[in-house]
Design brief:
This protein has 6 helices and 6 strands; from the N terminus they run E-E-H-H-H-H-E-E-H-E-E-H. By secondary structure, the chain is an alpha+beta fold. It starts with 10 loop residues before the first strand and ends with a helix.
């Protein structure tokens, strides 16, 4: 009767047949993922295919992740350009409102000036009708005070007109910024729409390749693999970097490296990723 081996995530089989128990964290990961075993004998060929295929699967999932990032970057770029346009339009609105306020103030001052000048004409017309010197002097003092107030108004009107001119000088800059922001937004939308069609086509091609490779997975490995992919995506797998997991960078054992060199499925004890040797190391 053939000997039954425990799942990889729960234990690792070393060449002498001794079973080394993993840490509790890896055990919990194993229970959650129900990883395939690394038994020898009749399962060696199917797991060999799985281990070889793992490198290809990781590459494909990384391609899909990169394409997904590129697709999602498009709307973010549009959002950024839209906010830039809104900011430029807000600045233009402020400039336009400042011009309106300055013109309103100038108009009010000019109305006050016309009213004051009309009052002066009326007072001067009354000088000849004065019956006493005191009445005459009172009117003269009033006329002098009103002329002083009129002079102040004239100065304020001049300042208001200068303010309007100063604000108007900033108007072309604000309008140009809005026009530029609108063009940039239109360009980004056009580019994103064009790239989206191409990226969608690439995604479809890569998914077809993924489906073909996943069909080659042994039945006893496929379910565990799919659960890990659903949970972690491309992060479910990692290449070995020297003697460390390429995902969490924790060191792996020499026995694990030996298993990997025999193209067997090995999981990182620290993070649970399915490990594989880089292509340059797989044959050494």
């Amino acid at each position: 009767m053939p000997r039954r081996f425990k799942p990889l995530f729960l234990s690792a089989t070393i060449p002498t047949g001794t079973v080394v128990t993993h840490n509790p964290h890896a055990q919990r990961l194993a229970m959650a993922t129900d990883a395939p075993s690394v038994a020898l004998g009749k399962f060696a060929m199917s797991l060999n295919i799985t281990a070889i295929t793992l490198r290809t699967l990781h590459r494909i999932h990384q391609q899909l992740a990169d394409l997904t990032d590129q697709i999602s970057a498009g709307p973010r770029q549009i959002t950024g350009r839209t906010k830039h346009l809104e900011g430029a339009e807000a600045k233009l609105t402020i400039v336009q409102n400042d011009i309106k306020k300055a013109k309103l103030l100038a108009d009010q001052k000019q109305l006050q000036l016309r009213s004051a000048e009309s009052k002066l004409v009326d007072l001067e017309s009354k000088l000849n009708a004065c019956k006493t010197n005191r009445e005459y002097q009172t009117l003269r003092d009033q006329i002098a005070a009103d002329r002083m107030a009129t002079s102040v108004l004239e100065g304020e009107i001049l300042e208001a007109l200068e303010l309007i001119d100063g604000i108007r000088k900033t108007l072309p800059v604000a309008e140009a910024e809005v026009a530029s922001a609108k063009k940039l937004l239109a360009d980004v939308k056009s580019r994103v729409n064009t790239e989206a069609a191409t990226l969608d086509s690439h995604v479809a091609t890569v998914k077809l390749e993924l489906d073909g490779v996943e069909r080659d997975l042994p039945a006893d490995s496929r379910e565990s693999y799919q659960r890990m992919i659903k949970s972690k995506g491309a992060d479910a797998m990692a290449a070995v970097d020297g003697q460390s997991c390429g995902g969490c960078f924790q060191q792996i054992t020499g026995n694990m490296v030996a298993e990997l060199k025999m193209s067997r499925v090995v999981a990182c004890r620290s993070c649970g990723r399915l490990l594989y040797l880089p292509e340059s190391s797989s044959g050494s």
